[in-house]
Structure formats: C-alpha cells, structure tokens
C-alpha cells in the first residue's frame, strides 16, 4: 500500500522503490498487488483499469471503487474515490495553493481502510499472505487490522502479518486529535497505546505500534532513528520494538537507470567504454548555458531543495568550487529561500553555475549522465537514491556520512584508493567546512584523470540493483509467515 509508485506518480524516492520492488520480487515467486489512490494523472495513464469492487461509502462522497489493471509489469489496484483524489492541480499531498490538502487525514485514512479490507480478503476475492505498508500514508492500515483482531480469535487469525517500511521518519502523518471521530476507528485505538502522539494523532505511529515487522531503508538509518537526536519523537517507541526493526538498502531499477541503455542519454556509455560520458557532459553544458569545458569538474544536484538535504551548506561551501573553477548544475524544487539563493548564484556566476527550478525526470537522467559528480550533503538521509544513480553513471557521489549515504559510498581516502575500493567522497560532521573539504578532495582527484577513472569504474560496477534488497524483503516476508 502506497501513495506513490513510479512511473505513475512520483514526488521522491518512495515512488522509485514501490515501482521497482514488486518487479524484483516476481522472479523470486512473490505475487504482488500495489494499492494506490487514483489521482487524476494516474487514472489517465491507466485507462484500462476495470472495476474490482464497489465501496458504497468511503469517508463520504457518492461511492467509490477499487479498480485494477496491469501497468509496466505491475499489478496495480486503484482506490477510485473522486471526492478524495480527483483534484485539479497540486500534487498527491499538496494543493495548488502550496498547502497540504485540508482533508489529507481522510484521503489517506481511506487508502488505509481500503488496504485493510483487501488484507482481510473482503475485496475482489484475493487475499494477500503479507501486507506491506509504505510510510504514513498507508500506515493507518495497521490500526484497522489491529481493530479487526479485537473481534475474537478467529478474526485475529484472519488478519495477515504486516510490515511497515519507513522511508523517512520526518513525515509522520500528524493530525489534530479532533479528526478522530471521522476515521472509523474504535476509541481504544486513539489512546497513548494507540495513535495518540504528543497531544495529536500520528498515522505513522499506527504502523510503528502494530505492524509485525518494521523496516527502514538502510542499516545506518535504522540505528540512527533509535537515538534521541534523530528519532524525531519516535525513538522511545522504536527502541521498544527494535527487535523487529531492520534496515534494507534500496536498489535502483536498472531497466531505467543504466547509462548504456538510458533513452534520455545522448551518448550511451558503460564501465568498459566510459569515454562517451564526455559528450553527455558537453551536451549538458550547452543545454544549461555553462562553459563547454572538459578540464574542470561539473558537480550536480538533483534533489528536493530543503534543509534536510543540506543545500544551505553547499551554498556556504561554494567558494571552494569557485576557487577550483569547478561548475555546478542544480535541478530541484523546495524551500523558496534555497531556490532563490541558487538562482542568484546562477546569475552572478554565469557559465559556471546553472539552476533549474522544477521537477523534470528526463532532465534528471541528463544530469546524472553529464555531470562528473553529484553532491548529496543531507543532514539525515534514510537511504538516498541519487547517490546510487550517481554510482551507476560514474558520477561520483560527494555525500554526508549519514544514513544510507554512509552505507552506499566508500570514501576515496588513501587506503581505499590504494585498495581500489573507493567509489566517492564522504564527509563528517555534516557542516559547510567539511563539505568544502570533500569538494576540494573531489576536485583534486578529478585533476588526476587516471585515478578519477579508476574510481568511476569501481563505482559503476558496484552492485546497486534490486537483487540483494529483494532477497532481504523476501526473507522478512518469510519470517512473518513462519511466525504465525
Ligand atoms: P527523497 O525521496 O528524500 O526526495 P531520494 O534520493 O530517496 O530522496 O529520491 C529522490 C528521487 O526523486 C530520485 O529519483 C531523484 O532523481 C528524484 N528527484 C528529486 N528531485 C528531482 C527533480 N527536481 N527532478 C527530477 N527528479 C528529481
């Protein structure tokens, strides 16, 4: 159950994961259904979706449907509830005015409630063995399933085991307490032992409290969220359930992210034939109005531009790049202040810095193919995908040593370079000075073409596909079934 799924709807890494994991699980014998709201953009792409079941009353409105189809190899089930999801403008969570949709509590309670009905085998004659919830938008399913268990031993047995994956603990689905009467939950669910959360309610807490298995998207982040500093209010509860918490690093979908076959890349290349990458660099420089130069490194950013992602630190560290004559290309949307600062920088450093404000999937591929390095200075990062794409594209990641970034990039220190295992650059603590040091180290290595190419080759041949992660998820599902 999910609120995003690539290529149907995407605002971030969650979509990439949900779009790829079922495909990676299929060869392992796992049959999946992805349950997703029928946002208008999704419905337009899935015109073949057919009614599976009617739901006469789904949190108001004239009636809703569950419809299903196959798309891009995925079996997708949609919650068709026009009163909740068929909105003009805005995105999955945010309206055209830039604020959250005012009824998000109902929209994602509805998704979760339908998810629970499917889990209980009440929709379309299909019942899953295991229920996998993604993030707060789906997490309230755990509350409905917990409530169903209250109806006696037989009812409890009919509830399949569940797993919650937390893609980012910062997003907790917190709403005022007074929305609870609308949620079709028993009063006992809305107590301190339930979804009550520091005077409000939290949908994520339902999943953390009641799912049989908890996962997050890297082992380091799984450890970090148990600390007071990074637990974001959940550390106590997570610690109490730490024996059920696992960290599994995301893979990348290499049908989509492979520089040898990527349709958005002008000159395909691979670890064995890396030279054409230079054409992509020149093409990107031309596209963005940067000076066409091979002798200076081109750093890039493809990201939400928020404080979490640490781009205020990059703004502070820019003198290091200027001193080296390096270039920077930024593609992102987010906080107005950070956007404006990068736009100003592009104006004052024409030919050296380019900023594109927007969300542009094809352009993100051209950035990965054309840049020499990608900067990910996150203050915290559950997994991070852009550094994985960077590895695959020989676009060396410069990353903060936190969460999934710590788990996926091997710093090009002396020992790692000598042993031929380095794949990028890490810095810690996460501040502008240390970021500057890492950027400077990257520039120095770039100047040594052979050494740079050795690291590129190593990065490009590192296993970053879904194979390992899919096996780890299957293992979790099997443990859940064995524990019944
Ligand atoms: P998060 O999910 O926290 O935003 P991730 O690194 O896990 O960060 O995933 C971000 C995903 O969104 C990646 O696939 C990245 O390429 C994509 N992305 C982020 N910003 C943009 C943008 N402005 N244009 C295109 N793709 C973007």
Q: What is the total number of structural domains?
A: 2
Q: Give the CATH H-level superfamily of the largest domain.
A: Glycogen Phosphorylase B
Number of strands: 17
Task: Determine the number of helices (DSSP H or I, runs of at least 4 residues).
Answer: 20
- Most strands sheet: 6 strands, parallel
Rg to the nearest angstrom? 23 Å
> Strands across the major sheet, in which order?
14-13-12-15-16-17
Architecture of the largest domain, according to CATH? 3-Layer(aba) Sandwich
N→C terminal distance: 21 Å
Which segments are poorly predicted (pLDDT under 50) over 5 or more consecutive residues? Answer: none
- Indicate the CATH topology of the largest domain: Rossmann fold
């Amino acid at each position: 159950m999910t609120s995003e799924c690539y290529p149907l709807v995407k605002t971030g890494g969650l979509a990439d994961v949900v779009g790829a994991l079922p495909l990676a699980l299929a060869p392992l014998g796992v049959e999946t259904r992805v349950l997703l709201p029928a946002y208008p953009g999704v419905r337009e792409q899935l015109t073949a979706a057919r009614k599976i079941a009617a739901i006469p009353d789904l949190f108001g409105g004239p009636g809703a449907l569950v419809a299903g189809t196959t798309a891009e190899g995925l079996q997708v089930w949609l919650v068709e509830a026009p009163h909740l999801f068929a909105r003009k403008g805005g995105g999955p969570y945010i309206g055209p005015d830039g604020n959250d949709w005012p009824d998000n509590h109902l929209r994602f309670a509805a998704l979760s409630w339908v998810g629970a009905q499917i889990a209980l085998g009440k929709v379309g004659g299909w019942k899953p063995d295991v229920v996998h919830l993604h993030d707060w938008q789906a997490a309230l399913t755990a509350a409905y399933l917990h409530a169903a268990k209250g109806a006696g031993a037989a009812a409890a047995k009919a509830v399949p085991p569940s797993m919650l994956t937390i893609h980012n603990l910062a997003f907790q689905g917190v709403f005022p307490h007074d929305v609870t009467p609308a949620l079709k939950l028993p009063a006992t669910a809305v107590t301190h032992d339930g979804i009550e959360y520091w005077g409000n309610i939290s949908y994520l807490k339902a999943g953390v409290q009641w799912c049989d298995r908890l996962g997050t998207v890297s082992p380091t982040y799984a450890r970090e969220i148990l600390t007071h500093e990074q637990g974001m209010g959940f550390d106590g509860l997570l610690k109490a359930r730490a024996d059920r918490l696992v960290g599994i690093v995301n893979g990348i979908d290499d049908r989509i992210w492979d520089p040898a076959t990527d349709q958005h890349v002008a000159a395909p290349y691979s670890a064995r034939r890396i030279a054409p990458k230079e054409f992509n660099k020149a093409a990107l420089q031309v596209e963005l109005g940067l000076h066409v130069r091979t002798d200076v490194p081109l750093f890039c950013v493809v990201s939400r531009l928020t404080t979490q992602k640490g781009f205020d630190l990059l703004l502070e560290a820019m003198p290091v790049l200027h001193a080296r004559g390096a270039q920077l290309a930024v593609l992102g949307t987010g906080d107005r202040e950070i956007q404006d600062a990068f736009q100003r920088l592009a104006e004052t450093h024409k030919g050296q810095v380019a900023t594109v404000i927007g969300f542009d999937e094809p352009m993100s591929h051209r950035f990965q193919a054309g840049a020499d390095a990608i900067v990910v200075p996150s203050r915290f990062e559950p997994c991070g995908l852009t550094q994985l794409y960077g590895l695959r594209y020989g676009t060396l990641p410069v990353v903060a040593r936190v969460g999934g970034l710590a788990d996926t990039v091997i710093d090009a220190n002396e020992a790692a370079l000598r042993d031929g295992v380095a794949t990028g650059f890490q810095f810690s603590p996460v501040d502008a000075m240390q970021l500057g040091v890492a950027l400077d180290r990257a520039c120095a290595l770039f100047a040594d073409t052979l050494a740079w190419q050795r690291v590129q080759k190593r990065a490009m041949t590192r296993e970053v596909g879904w194979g390992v992660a899919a096996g780890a998820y299957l293992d979790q599902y099997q443990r859940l079934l064995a524990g019944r």
